[in-house]
Write a structure and sequence with these properties.
Largest sheet: 2 strands, antiparallel
Number of strands: 4
Number of helices: 8
Structural class: mainly alpha
Distance between the termini: 26 Å
Helix content: over 70%
Shape: globular
Length: 280
């Protein structure tokens, strides 16, 4: 992306995030009510399902908002990392499955042992397929476009990767806090904020290392959320101790994913070839 002045860059970041939040909460109030009226006689759905519906709206808003902002600079979605690598795209998606599972298992085990997560059981086949589509396209594509594809990319046009990753991950955590802790409970707020921040940093590193291609972070992000949905896992933080343990569990998962991805890129480093990239 082009170089921005300091003032122009921060105006874009603040405006982009503010519009994103406003749109999501507007959709939450209108669309969720409409879905209830059309498909559930006006009654509320189970809390976990409604949270997932709201987050799906987040993904839809993310895709649309990034597209609109890119139009102002006459850029394409590929400039935000949403492009398919013909040679390695499927390899990255397939590899993301065991990497995500390796990070997910210690996280969910720690949360289960300390009664942070409640697992209601595996969904039926229709629920699994639907959850996979929502998790991969709405959450993976939408949220990664928002925070890595657009925000991190424009920040990196002026600042270091580390600073850009911290800011984008902090905004990633803040949005999750606003969406998933509306009751204002301190335990929920801290757990959601720092857990999302830890995962956001890992996604930022993967995005940077793959030469700003979103395939890998989208796949890991999508599969991570999918595993929670498939087992109908619902997290609850009853006290500060649970908050600390929950954050620790998320950090463990993020670190495992980071280390496995780092090992992969050590064995097959990315190299620039004629303004494009491939793997050695």
């Amino acid at each position: 992306m082009k170089k921005y002045s300091t003032q122009d860059l921060w105006i874009r970041v603040i405006l982009f995030f503010a519009i994103c939040v406003i749109l999501i909460f507007s959709f939450q109030g209108f669309v969720l009510r409409l879905v209830r009226e059309l498909f559930n006689n006006g009654n509320a759905y189970p809390e976990t399902l409604e949270i997932n519906l709201v987050r799906a709206m987040n993904g839809i808003v993310g895709i649309g908002l990034v597209y609109i902002f890119l139009q102002f600079d006459r850029k394409k979605m590929s400039d935000a990392g949403l492009s398919w690598n013909k040679e390695f795209g499927w390899e990255w998606i397939l590899l993301s499955i065991p990497i995500t599972i390796a990070g997910f298992i210690p996280t969910i085990l720690i949360e289960y042992i300390f009664n942070i997560v409640i697992i209601e059981g595996l969904l039926d086949i229709v629920g699994i397929l639907l959850s996979l589509v929502i998790a991969f396209f709405a959450f993976g594509v939408g949220e990664e476009l928002l925070f890595r594809g657009y925000l991190q990319t424009i920040l990196e046009s002026k600042y270091s990767f580390m600073f850009s990753a911290i800011v984008s991950a902090a905004l990633f955590g803040l949005l999750h806090l606003l969406l998933l802790a509306p009751g204002g409970r301190l335990e929920d707020m801290f757990a959601i904020l720092f857990s999302a921040f830890a995962m956001g940093l890992t996604f930022s590193y993967i995005f940077k290392t793959t030469k700003h291609n979103l395939i890998f972070p989208i796949a890991i992000h999508g599969f991570w959320d999918f595993f929670y949905f498939a087992f109908q896992a619902e997290t609850t933080y009853q006290e500060i101790f649970h908050t600390v343990v929950g954050i620790f569990a998320s950090i463990i998962g993020a670190v495992v994913i980071f280390l496995l991805f780092y090992l992969y890129t050590t064995k097959r480093p990315l190299v620039i070839v004629d303004d494009d990239y491939s793997l050695e």
